[in-house]
């Protein structure tokens, strides 16, 4: 913020965004051999890797239409979790070019979601075009590169697991393009939350002034995103309820179609179908399929005042800012999608009685036991665990074997490999039967009768466990 110790950083960022590199023309490169020779680790052999300068790369990105740009070496520890996925997609990757495209804040803030979603789609298409132009420019320089989608992830073979080639947020933070806010979005120091991110995988070393993370967080901790979220996914203490956010905001991008298709298959007549899913829902889903899927909220981004280019109205009159930006979203009468028995159902009834809660099934159905265990923190409903303090030992047998310790205490959840400590309840289950149970293909009584599921300890703890993960 102006007057702070970070003002010089802001000025440098503004200069970088508005200015052009003094270096023009093609990138000077060394080691022009562009072969696909790889070493045993899957990385390109050092003798086959070209180099280009940061000035030339940045200039090319800005001229292609990016609003800000940073670069990260594939070796940086901040992006270590991305290594296997990036190298699987493009083994020649040596650098990650992170891009920012600024969006129109007024459009995102409109209570008319069609306006906000049109801006999302426009900017995603724009950024994908920018990435293509950069990749084409690099190709003409003799440098190979690929650009994963800057829009919604598309690697759906692993759904509901990892469905993205590279985490744009992780790379952007490492590249100095912002920090994560309490709303789980990257906040750019200048453009704030009104950005879209992209990443280009570059088969070259970049020399000179590699980007570094900024040493402050632009998030103001104003908690306006907490106040705006219609499902209470963001808590004041920083806790994030992924399932509540996913179920509502991503209704038409992910789980909604599966629910509609299964409802259609299970309906006796068209009249029966309409009684289960109204005309307005079916029409909205069809429009998403025909013209581009729409976010149902994204209010956390809409109300965020952080960023040098957007903070002025908030700084000048916070009450007026809330009246103009926050209140219209809170007062909007709308259908809010929730999991029956989940935290969001209670939150909507308590906080937004004028909004209509629509209970829908959970569509985050794990395909493996590993996916089930990894996904537990994402679907945990902590308000349902307020009185629970228990340690569970899970043992899975059959096709997929695994052992895990799950502790629920103080409305917090932890999952660890193996059996640790003393269990209050031991759960032994056939892995295939357990996954079928999660899909609702099998019932708990049948599993107990056939001994596909065995409990050692008070059965009430199993009931209490289920309340924390409503399905």
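Q: What amino acid sequence fits the structure above?
A:
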């Amino acid at each position: 913020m102006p007057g702070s110790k970070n003002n010089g950083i802001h000025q440098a960022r503004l200069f970088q965004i508005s200015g052009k590199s003094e270096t023009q023309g093609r990138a000077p490169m060394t080691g022009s051999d562009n072969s696909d020779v790889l070493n045993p680790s899957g990385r390109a052999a050092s003798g086959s890797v070209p180099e280009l300068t940061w000035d030339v790369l940045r200039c090319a990105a800005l001229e292609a239409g990016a609003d800000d740009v940073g670069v990260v070496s594939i070796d940086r520890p901040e992006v270590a979790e991305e290594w296997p996925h990036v190298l699987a997609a493009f083994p020649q990757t040596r650098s990650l070019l992170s891009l920012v495209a600024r969006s129109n804040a007024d459009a995102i803030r409109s209570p008319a979601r069609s306006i906000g979603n049109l801006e999302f789609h426009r900017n995603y298409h724009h950024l994908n075009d920018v990435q293509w132009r950069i990749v084409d420019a690099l190709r003409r320089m003799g440098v190979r590169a690929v650009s994963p989608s800057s829009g919604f992830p598309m690697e759906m073979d692993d759904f509901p697991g990892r469905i993205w080639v590279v985490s744009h947020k992780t790379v952007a933070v490492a590249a100095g393009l912002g920090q994560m806010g309490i709303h789980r979005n990257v906040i750019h120091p200048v453009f704030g939350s009104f950005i879209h991110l992209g990443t280009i995988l570059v088969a070259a070393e970049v020399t000179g002034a590699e980007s570094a993370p900024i040493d402050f967080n632009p998030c103001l901790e104003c908690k306006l995103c907490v106040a705006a979220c219609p499902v209470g996914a963001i808590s004041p203490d920083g806790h994030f309820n992924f399932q509540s956010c996913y179920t509502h905001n991503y209704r038409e991008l992910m789980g909604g179609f599966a629910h509609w298709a299964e409802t259609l298959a299970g309906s006796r007549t068209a009249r029966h179908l309409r009684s289960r899913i109204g005309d307005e829902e079916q029409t909205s889903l069809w429009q998403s399929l025909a013209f581009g899927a729409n976010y149902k909220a994204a209010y956390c981004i809409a109300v965020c005042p952080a960023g040098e280019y957007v903070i002025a109205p908030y700084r000048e009159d916070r009450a007026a800012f809330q009246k103009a930006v926050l209140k219209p979203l809170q007062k909007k009468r709308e259908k809010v999608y929730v999991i029956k028995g989940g935290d969001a159902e209670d939150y909507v009834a308590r906080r937004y009685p004028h909004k209509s809660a629509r209970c829908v099934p959970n569509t985050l159905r794990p395909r493996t036991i590993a996916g089930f265990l990894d996904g537990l923190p994402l679907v945990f409903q902590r308000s349902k665990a307020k009185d629970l303090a228990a340690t569970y030992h899970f043992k899975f047998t059959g096709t997929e074997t695994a052992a895990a310790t799950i502790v629920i205490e103080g409305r917090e959840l932890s999952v660890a490999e193996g059996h640790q400590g003393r269990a209050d309840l031991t759960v032994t289950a056939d892995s295939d039967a357990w996954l079928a149970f999660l899909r609702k293909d099998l019932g708990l009584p049948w599993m107990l009768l056939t001994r596909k599921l065995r409990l050692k300890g008070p059965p009430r703890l199993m009931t209490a466990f289920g309340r924390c993960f409503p399905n």
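Q: And what stands out in the fold?
A: The radius of gyration is 25 Å.
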